[in-house]
Amino acid sequence: MVYKILGILCFLFLFWGCAFDLAHVSYKPAQFKPEPEPRITLIMKDAVKVEQAPCGYARTLLKGTRWDLIGTIPEGEVYKPKDQVLTVECSHVHEAYLVVSGGALIGFYLPVEKGFVPISPTIKLPID
Amino acid sequence: MKTLVKVLLLTLMVCGIASCATSGPKFTEMNVAKISQDPGQGRIFFYRPSSMGAAIRPDILLNNEKVGEAISWGFFYVDRPSGDYTVVTSTEVTRKCSFVLDKGQTRYIRMAISMGFFAGHVYGELVDEPAAIEELKGCRYIGK
Question: What ipTM does this complex have?
Fold first, then answer.
């Protein structure tokens, strides 16, 4: 009887551990330099599926959406969406902007956390 | 006897669901302004367009301040100055949703539910306006 109770307690502790094991988006702090005025707007000529977003939650950049250059971080230029909500998520949900370098999407900038989330491989964007 | 037990259980279930029902005016009946009347502020809508896990109604904290509860088929909104915001809901775990609010902007936070171990996890998701407006049509006002 005692062994049964101990077994049940161990089982519950194990599952308790699983239930509370939150996953977090990994990002590194990024020094953001704002642009005084948005001078460049990107337009997605086609939809882009980003499969390599954190925790396997794929994201799609919609065709025709506009993205304003709002600043830079050391890794690249930061573009904020004008007509699409973009987030990355694991257990928590974070608003995200695009980080672009040489016409390729190299990751996401988290404006609240002020962090950079790289993606690999990078994605050539269908923009002019 | 078995039939009696079944009837009692059914009655309890119906009462339970009824107690969770939302009773305010519908979004479509209210003519709610989508943007804040104060040009220096932005507006944040919170809504929960589902009956799933209706008995779980966690508090919604916006930058550590309680602004309401995540009630099934309910919605409310708050006006806030521009800045960084984090929405926190706690059930058996704490879930967060962070976003930026600009002056004159409106953000929409859908309260979704996912499976948990002992109870479902209610969490905020940032939603595009067209999708949010469609979902809000089925919700009733629960603000104060």
Answer: 0.82
